[in-house]
Every structure is written in structure tokens, then in C-alpha cells.
Amino acid sequence: MLALQPPPQAPIDAPQIEYSAILPVLILLGAACIGVLVEAFVSKASRWAAQVTLSLLAILGAGLAFVLYVTDSPERGLTTLYRTIAVDRPALFLWGTLLALGLGALLLIADRTVERGGAFVAQAGIRPGTVQDRAQMASGGMQTEVFPLTLFALSGMMIFCAANDLLTMFIALEVLSLPLYLMCGLARRRRLISQESAVKYFLLGAFASAFFLYGLALLYGYAGSVKLADIANAAAGSAASDTLLFGGFGLLVVGLMFKASVGPFHAWTPDVYQGSPTPITAFMAACTKVAAFGGILRVLTVGFESTSWEWRGVLWVVAVASMVIGAVLGLTQTDIKRMLAYSSIAHAGFLLVGALALRPEGLSGTLFYLLTYGFTTLAAFGAVSLVRDSNGEATHLSQWAGLAKRSPVLAWVFAFLLLAMAGIPLTSGFIGKFVVFSAGIQDGMAPLVVIALVASAVAAFFYLRVIVLMFFSDPAPDGPTVTVPGTFTTAAITLGVLVTLVLGLVPAFALDWAGTGTFAF
Amino acid sequence: MHGYFGAYGLVALLLVVGAVFVTVALTANRLLRPARPTPQKLLTYECGVDPVGGGWAQSYVRYYVFTFLYVVFAVDAVFLFPWATVFAAPGFGVATLVEMFVFLGFLAVGILYAWRKGVLSWA
């Protein structure tokens, strides 16, 4: 008689899970799943209120769990879930930054006072330009799926910068990217360019994911493991072919640089930043940048530090390309959102200078720069969403002429944020650039730092041009008006401006926190 | 045909032989066969049935949803089968049972959403 007996199994050892360490991520993921159910079962009229309450509670709850854990987290950090997640000091710094930025972005997303019904389309399936499309533009509803999607993206970002092996990193990359692709296409106005940006981002993003995955496969072939620490060990003492190692590294880095909108891999950035609903642009520009650079820092430091001699020169070229492209092409832009997109490409180059200085100062400097840049850019996009005319946001630079005469408060706030991006002293941008560049010099990258200084001087020109335009030009007669924002947007912009100011005046505590520890693996 | 590059010489030779073989065979065929085309003969051959419509036919976008739901169930099954063979074996126990239902719960969230949004009805 044939008995279908399963073959005897060796007992598996269940993974050790430090629930308290990963609780913030679990809260966000759980709330996102509940958000999907809210979308399915709560009536349309009360959905917005339910989703906003749920999302805000989730981020605040995750923040509380985070604070409780940080106060007595181990100095050296820990790895959990079969060493796939590393909750160490840099990861915790990035988590804190992401949660705070995510809260700000969520406030911008939830705002319904600036545009009646919110910045999001009521029904995404309607074809742009049709009668139904004009009707939905005037209606008050919105696709409240945005809220669970935001939570999914945010938790993906948090996993991404704590991922200790490449496979986990890839899953996190998809969890953070797929919601963003969708949200880009949900703008209430200018549906066509919004959908265009979504398709563009999706196609190019899928392409970049393929690069990442192929690089992962080559590295697995090289090291026999997807864990960053194992790859580092293999690279330190292995007779295997270097072609696999550097081929894999190159492809992996292309995927990462794409997400961080660095240098020659930036082509999607201006179009997507321009077409997306402005709150989503703020979310992408602030949070995706933080997460992507968190991943880049970990991969470069943990996985490839021992071979840095071979690849560093190539990444120098990438950093220079990014700074030059951002600064020079930023000069020629006439649309404020595209200008900020090129500014973010230039900033990615500056950040890469810090990431290439493979030393503690470089790590803490880059983390601090991410914190400052995130809040500044969040507030800047928040301010952009307020300048409107009858066609929605007035993003053409000529429409911003003389804005200081119509609305001095907004003009001053925006000027302050632009000065922070340019790196003027007494703003957080100055301290950020200072720590990153001095880390670069300490690591013997003086030529790169000189190029970075020149690029930031060029970039300062286009920031100052907007300030001159706002303060010293005459307003156009049919110019845009500045909407008085409701509580949510005011809170988000205030948060960004305050952090920019405080980190410019007393940066010590954040710098100390950024420098308390290194990666665990 | 010796040495490192000699090995590639063999590959190049194979490419040349292949190209010559195809060219000679097709040319000989053309020279020997009678050519009497009719409209019927020039039609695209599609397993004996007359082809209908152009090559750029539109497909119905709603099929996409069914593909998507199929993937959800397929992923379900891919994990359920290996799990079913071991969950009662010694050393696995209650935790294994519970974990699978947690996993199914997450997938059920997606299916519930699809159902409430009217994806499962055709009309």
C-alpha cells in the first residue's frame, strides 16, 4: 500500500522578532489594511473623515511607538526577522524623519480648503476632457484611496531604509513605488498631464526595478547570498569573478539612483513632479528622497565599503553630473514645480557627496542633510499649492511676479525656504551643506567639493531669481491670488518652516542624534 | 581553432554555416517551385480559419481585472500547497496554522475590496 506520508522534517526554528523595534512599521501597515476595508465598507459621505482620522492616528501611533522604542534602544542597534531588518541608529533617525515628513505630507494631502474637495480627482476612471470630467472637477468628492496608499508607501519607505538584505530591499522598493505611481495620476485638474506623469513614472520605474533586480541576481551569483554583510565578506576575500560583483553593483546602483532622482537617471523627475497633485509631489520629493538615500547609504557602507576604491570614481562622475544637470537646467525652467524638481536633482548630487565620504561624518552629515532638505521641500511645495488662479495652481514663473505685494506673508515664507535650499547661513540648508561638504573634504574629495560649491552657487542664482521676481516686479493685472489655507496646510507649512529655522539656528541636537551610531548588520 | 579566441571562431563558423544553409535552402525552393498566387493563398495562415480583423485589435480592459484576481488566488494556492503538506508535522504546530490564516486574511482584504467595488460582477 502506498501511504502518502510527508517526508520527515527537521524542525524549523522560528525567527526571533523584536516586535517593539518594528512596531511603527507594523502599525502603519495594519492601518493601511484597515484603510482598504474602510474604503470598501464605509459610506461615501463619511469616508473622507474616517480615512483622515485613521491615517492621522496611525502616523501618530507609529510616532509614539517609535519614541517609546528610541528612548531605550540598544546603542549598537539590532537585526531582526532572520537579520533581514536592521533597526540601528541611522535607521531610527531615518524613521523619525520619515514619520515627521509623512505627517506633514498627510496634512497637505488631506486639505480640502485650498481646492474645493481636495487636490485629488473624484473618479480617476473618467476620461480627461469629457463632460463627466468637467462635472467631477466641480464636484466635492475625491478618491479617498489616497490615504491607505500613502500609508503603504510610507511603510515601504521605512522598510527600505532598514532593509539588511537586497531581497527585502527590493520588496520594500515595490511597496513604496506602486502606490506612488497610482497617486501621481490622481490630480483633480490637468488630468492629462497627471496621467502622463503616472504612466511615465510607472514605465521608467519598472525599468529601474528591473535594473535593481538584475543587479541583485548578479550579486547573488557572486556571493551566494543576498545579505549585504555576506556580500561584503565575499568581496573582501573571494576568488570569484569581479565582473559579477561590479556588474551587479552597477545595475543595483542604477536602480537606487533612479529612485533618488540622481544625475543622469533623473529624466522622470521634472515631468512627474509637474504632473502629480502638489501634495503628492511634496510627499515624493521629501519622503522618497529620504528613503532612497537611506538605502544608498546602507548599501554603499555595509555592502561595498571594502571595494570602494574601484567604484568611487564612477560615483564621483554621477555626483558631478547630478549637480551640473540640476543647477544648469534649473536655470532654464519657467515652471516653478519643474524648477523645484531640478533643484531636487542638484540636491541629490550634494547628498551623494556625503554618501561617498564613507566615514562617520559623511553618514551623519547625509542624514542631517536629508532631514533639513525634506522639511524645506515639503513646505515649499505646500506654499506652491496656495498660489492659484481660475485654472488651479498658477505654476508659471511669470505669474509669480510681484507676489510680495499681494501676499507678503507667503512671499516671505517662500523666500525663506528658497534661501534655505540655496544654503544661506541661519537656515538649515547652510548647516546641511556645511556638514556634507566638510565630510567630503575630510575624506580627500576636495575637487568634488569644489565642483559642488560652484554648482550650489549656480543653483543659488535661480532661487534668487524667483525671490527678485516676487519682490521687485510689478504684479500682472490678471495674476493669481493666494488662497488662505485651512488648518491642515497651515500646519504642514508651519512645521516645515519651523524645522528649517530651528535647525539653522540650533542644529547641534539633530547633528548629535544623526551621529550616535553606525549601521548594524 | 585553438586557444581562447579560437573557441569563439567555432561559434562564428557556425553562424556562417547557418546563414549559408538558410539562404541556399530558400533560394533553391524559390527557383524550383511554381508560383501561382491567388488572394486565398496570400491570406495569413491561422490554423485553417480565415483571419478576422487586424493585428492591432483592442482587447477588453475588464479582462485585466480577472487576470489580476486570478493572480491573487494563484499566489494563495502556491503558498497553500506546500504548507498543507507540513503544517501537521511535528515541530510546526499552532503558530504555523495561525500564520497561514493571517496571510489569507491579508489576501481576503484585497478580495473584499474588489467585491465591494463591484469588480466581481460583469454588468
TrEMBL record, chain A:
As for membrane topology, the entry says: Multi-pass membrane protein
Signal peptide location in the record? Answer: none
* The keyword Transport belongs to this UniProt entry's keyword annotation: yes
Q: Which EC numbers does the record give?
A: 7.1.1.-
Q: What region holds the NADH:quinone oxidoreductase/Mrp antiporter transmembrane domain?
A: 163-457
Q: Which InterPro entries match?
A: NADH-Q_OxRdtase_suN/2, ND/Mrp_TM
Q: What is the first-listed, main subcellular location in coarse terms?
A: membrane
State the UniProt keywords alphabetically. Answer: Cell membrane, Membrane, NAD, Quinone, Translocase, Transmembrane, Transmembrane helix, Transport
The entry's family comment says:
Belongs to the complex I subunit 2 family.
Record-given protein name: NADH-quinone oxidoreductase subunit N
Q: Which organism is it from?
A: Kibdelosporangium persicum
Gene name linked to the record: nuoN
TrEMBL record, chain B:
Q: Where are the transmembrane segments?
A: 6-28, 63-86, 92-115
Q: How does it sit in the membrane?
A: Multi-pass membrane protein
Catalytic reaction annotation: a quinone + NADH + 5 H(+)(in) = a quinol + NAD(+) + 4 H(+)(out)
Listed Pfam families:
Oxidored_q4 (PF00507)
Predominant cellular place of this UniProt entry's protein: membrane
Where does it localize? Cell membrane; Membrane
Reply yes or no: does the keyword Transcription regulation apply: no
Q: What highest taxon heads this organism's lineage?
A: Bacteria
UniProt KW keywords: Membrane, NAD, Quinone, Transmembrane, Transmembrane helix, Transport
Major enzyme class: translocase
User: InterPro entries of this UniProt entry?
Assistant: NADH_UbQ/plastoQ_OxRdtase_su3, NDAH_ubi_oxred_su3_sf
Question: What EC number(s) does this enzyme carry?
Answer: 7.1.1.-
Task: Briefly state the protein's biological role.
Answer: NDH-1 shuttles electrons from NADH, via FMN and iron-sulfur (Fe-S) centers, to quinones in the respiratory chain.
Family membership, please give it. Belongs to the complex I subunit 3 family.
Its name, as the record gives it, is NADH-quinone oxidoreductase subunit
Q: What species is this protein from?
A: Kibdelosporangium persicum
